[in-house]
Specification:
The chain is about 70% helix and about 0% strand. With about 140 residues, the protein is an all-alpha fold. The mean pLDDT is about 85.
Length: about 140
């Protein structure tokens, strides 16, 4: 998916950035740094840093940090993605980022910091029958 995005959008600075956030968040949580780094660098170089680009860049950065084993920094970057998605008003991408933030905080040994992200993810997943979003989270 990242290869497709990079091929299609390389050199194009006028793409409607809303189209990227879901793909970027999903990719950031699924792939390793070797495939993610060029995408992150491309997002960072875009001249128009909209909220959507900022959210995608934060999630890509989080994926890179998690791949390097820096779960505390990854959690902070995913939390930044959550905040950007709040500002955008994108509940689905917010929930995906919140789940990733929760998992990263837990991996970093910070269950207290993970708790609000776990709660919001559980609420979203139950409301939208998105139960796979809960995988790896402490759900009672």
């Amino acid at each position: 998916m990242l290869d497709d995005l990079a091929t299609e959008w390389r050199g194009d600075t006028s793409v409607a950035s809303r189209d990227w956030i879901t793909a970027a968040v999903a990719a950031a949580t699924l792939v390793g740094s070797d495939r993610l780094r060029p995408f992150y660098e491309w997002l960072s170089a875009l001249p128009r840093q909209t909220l959507w680009v900022q959210a995608a860049r934060a999630s890509a950065r989080a994926g890179l940090l998690a791949a390097d084993g820096d779960f505390a920094a990854a959690a902070a970057a995913y939390a930044e993605t959550v905040a950007r998605c709040d500002r955008i008003g994108d509940a689905t991408d917010r929930a995906i980022a919140a789940a990733a933030a929760a998992r990263s905080f837990l991996a970093a040994g910070s269950p207290e910091a993970a708790a609000p992200y776990v709660r919001s993810t559980v609420d979203f997943a139950r409301r939208n029958s998105a139960h796979r979003l809960l995988e790896g989270l402490p759900v009672l």
